[in-house]
Amino acid sequence: MRTQVAIVGAGPAGLTLALLLAREGIESVLVESRTRAYVEHRVRAGLLEHNTVQLLHELGVGERLAREGLEHHGIYLRRQGRTERVRLTELTGRRITIYGQQEVVKDLIAARLEHGGALHFEVSNVEVHDLDRERPRVTYTHKGAAQELECDVVAGCDGFHGVCRPSIPDGVLTEYEYVYPFGWLGILVEAAPATDELIYAWHERGFSLYTMRSPQISRLYLQVPDDARIEDWPDQRIWEELQIRLASDGWRVNEGPIFEKGITPMRSFVVEPMQYGRLFLAGDAAHIVPPTGAKGLNLAVNDVRLLGAALTDWYRDGSSAGLEAYSHNALRRVWRAQDFSNYMTQLLHDLGGGAFERRLQLARIDYIARSEAAAGSLAENYVGLPAAADF
Ligand code: RFL
Ligand code: PHB
């Protein structure tokens, strides 16, 4: 088999890239190790930046998003029972949208299949070869048969645990990593959110976040130690902790049946460059951010926006300038997002530094509450810098 672009991984990065390329008449084959049902139900991110929403609309996959997505114009920062609102839209002219990542993935898969594009689920033994040659290959097993896919370019969109990044020879990549000594316990709950906008809560006992998926479904997160085990967190304990950390006078978190529960470790990770020969990495395959800044999915979409445009130039006019600049350009936004995600994490979590550190965190939150410049900087990063702003 032969195609122009072989895409490994049907997460947000791979699926969006396939649609971007199809729009320009560029053929691709997508291979995904999981089942369709698995990727359509994997609970992860929920917050889409302005740029991401705009791109999904441009790709013709924004119809359900426009109907079911929840537009927000601010966020709350809470500490010691007091709440500040960061006026995102007033400060930046831009907004954010809450819409589950699995819903984005469902819409992207439907669009891909509707246009008749190749998308193979449940492939195994995926390997990439000849990345430093003009005809790289992807081999895999599908429905019991060995397959070989020859292509011009491989897009490594297979997430943090994928095969593409480890296939790059030793010595090519530089890795930057920081592992936080805590994780997030996340739940999905059948209960109306008791808040109109997201609440990021600082507390001596650790961070918590109140977010949502719909007018009937809440999503909540708790900072937990990195060795926390889900068995040690029965529902009752989760509710007690959330009520304490999110407390505010005359107000309570709405409780209800918990139908999803999981712990995610927190890390910051980047590889440079995001390319080796004819292999281009995009999304979590090249970088991970802690979720406090809500940037992971948005960065994945930004990477493929750049990669799609570079491949379009290459196929159309033979110009390789965009492909050569891809890693450099993508990394500029990656590092901006790394810094912002780290800033939000350090602002709000118990970092283990004791009373002095807590006073500094409270002073920083006060500064955001009182200074338009401080709030403006947070807001600009949170909603995402405009795609045209060279980030
Ligand atoms: P994905 O989504 O991991 O997709 C990679 C795909 O590749 C497949 N795969 C393979 N396929 C073929 N062969 C192989 N050898 C393969 N190995 C793997 C996988 O099955 C999968 O389908 O990466 P992608 O596309 O780069 O997308 C990245 C995002 O998923 C991720 O950054 C976000 O979920 C991060 N994130 C958040 N991002 C946001 O922008 N806003 C948020 O509010 C937000 N909240 C979160 C988050 C991540 C979380 N967790 C659980 C990690 C909240 C949480 C709790
Ligand atoms: C979510 O809705 O899942 C979400 C929102 C904001 C974050 C992280 C996760 O910072």
Sheet having the most strands: 8 strands, mixed
- In the CATH scheme, the class of the domain at 5-72 and 95-176 and 267-349 would be Alpha Beta
Tell me, rounded to a whole number, the average pLDDT.
97
Taken from the alpha-carbon principal axes, the silhouette is globular
Proportion of residues in helical segments: 25-40%
Instruction: Provide the CATH architecture of the domain at 5-72 and 95-176 and 267-349.
Output: 3-Layer(bba) Sandwich
Classify the beta-strand content into a percent band: 25-35%
Number of helices in the DSSP assignment: 11
Spell out which ligands are present.
8-demethyl-8-dimethylamino-flavin-adenine-dinucleotide, P-hydroxybenzoic acid
Report the count of strand segments: 20
Distance from first to last alpha carbon: 37 Å
CATH topology of the domain at 5-72 and 95-176 and 267-349: FAD/NAD(P)-binding domain
